[in-house]
Amino acid sequence: MTDEQANVVRLDMRGSRRLTMRESAVWYGLAGASYIALSIFHKWLLNWFVGPAWLVAFVWAGPALLDRVRRR
Amino acid sequence: MSWGAHQFEIYAIQAHLPRRMRGRISFFGVWLGDFTPDFLAKFWVYGVTIGSTHYGAHVPHRWHRGWPGVGFTHTLSFGLLVAGGLWLWRRRRALTVGYALGFAAHALTDVNDSVGTMLLFPFSTLNWTTQAWSYAATVSGGKYLDAAAYYSSLGLVMDLLWLGVVLGWWRALTREFWRTEVVPADPHGWARLGGLMPERALLALYHATFFYGICRVVSWSTWTHVVARPVIDGVRRVGYPLDLSWTGPWWIGTRSLPHAPPALVPVVAGLLLVLVYATASALWERMGAAEAVARGAGA
Q1: CB B29 within 8 A of CB B98
Q2: pLDDT in tens, B50-74
């Protein structure tokens, strides 16, 4: 991979950044670890709504917030 | 009842569709079909306690899977009836067949606990069960004891088996699979969601039920075997004892309803699964033609 290719940011149909495999693994891992750690002691979190919403929120908002912080 | 298995089986269905159905079965339909039985029945199984009054089923296993009760929500005939209603309402083959397959997976997986499901309802109210593990929802134990019993029994193995089936066909979790086989079956639904969120969130939404399934298995298993401090037969223990024997765990009383001989269950369940697939296959082209006509008329 050339430096030019490595610097290309892949965008989706809405112009949002696509995650690399490594980034995806990190965000999914963070979502899973935090959800499991909390839900072991707070069982009300373990339901059909919170579980799926937890992952979507992490993967949606996490990278966006990180990008905003990096740009500052 | 089954726990994480229901989250995993919807991906297993997507991954193992017959060739001509690939990319043409609605993921939302499969999801909805798989979750309908418990959406309708489970809340009242555990019930809710307000003050000192418990509101809920007096005999949870009969309410959940029997007749009288709402056991019909876990029967193939009910699933096919709702699928038929969806077809009449929307005229969408992807949604209708997806719903029927998802519903069938749920009803057939639930034959493995000691109560089972009424597979031949309304022709028979006899339950069909392999009795692989004990049905453990009780008024006093609620969700916690139910989870503890499930994750101390062959139920845990069932969850891991379904997880293995999905991971063995990991391609069903990739972005490429989602793009080429999941989105085309629900173009309008995904497009509408795509107007609200970026692609990475859409993909996460597709993965979300799988994610929840894994977290559910790990969280409840950890609580059951590490965190909980139950008192069983007067002895305080660190975690509930694991018992992978048939109809385990030993420390909970087995609940059951009048049922067919367990040895017949795999045969009958297998035949019914083949029947659902065969019916879907037989109607596939005709439904496609009817959908095209309906769309043409609506255009």
Answers
A1: yes
A2: 998 999 999 999 999 999 999 999 9
Chain A residue nearest residue B193, CA to CA:
A14
Question: Phi and psi (nearest 5°) for B248?
Answer: -75, 175
Question: Does the CB of B200 have a partner CB in chain A at under 8 Å?
Answer: yes
Closest CA to B111 of B34, B1, B33: B1
Cβ atoms of B42 and A48 within 8 Å: the answer is: no
How many A/B residue pairs have CB atoms within 8 Å?
79
- Asked if B222's CB is within 8 angstroms of A51's CB, the reply is no
Instruction: Report domain extents, chain B.
Output: 4-298
**Quick check: A51 contacting B, CB < 8 Å?**
yes
Cα-only R_g, chain A: 15
Q: What is this model's ipTM? A: 0.93
Q: Which of B143, B215, B223 sits opposite A51 (nearest CB)?
A: B215
For B46-60, b/e burial (b = at least 16 CB within 10 A) is bbeeeeeeeebbeeb
Which residue is closest to A29 within chain B, CA to CA? Answer: B211
Rounded to the nearest integer, the mean pLDDT of chain B is 96
Residues of B in contact with A58 (CB under 8 A): 204
Closest-CA residue of B relative to A53 is: B208
pLDDT in tens, B89-139: 999 999 999 999 999 999 999 999 999 999 999 999 999 999 999 999 999
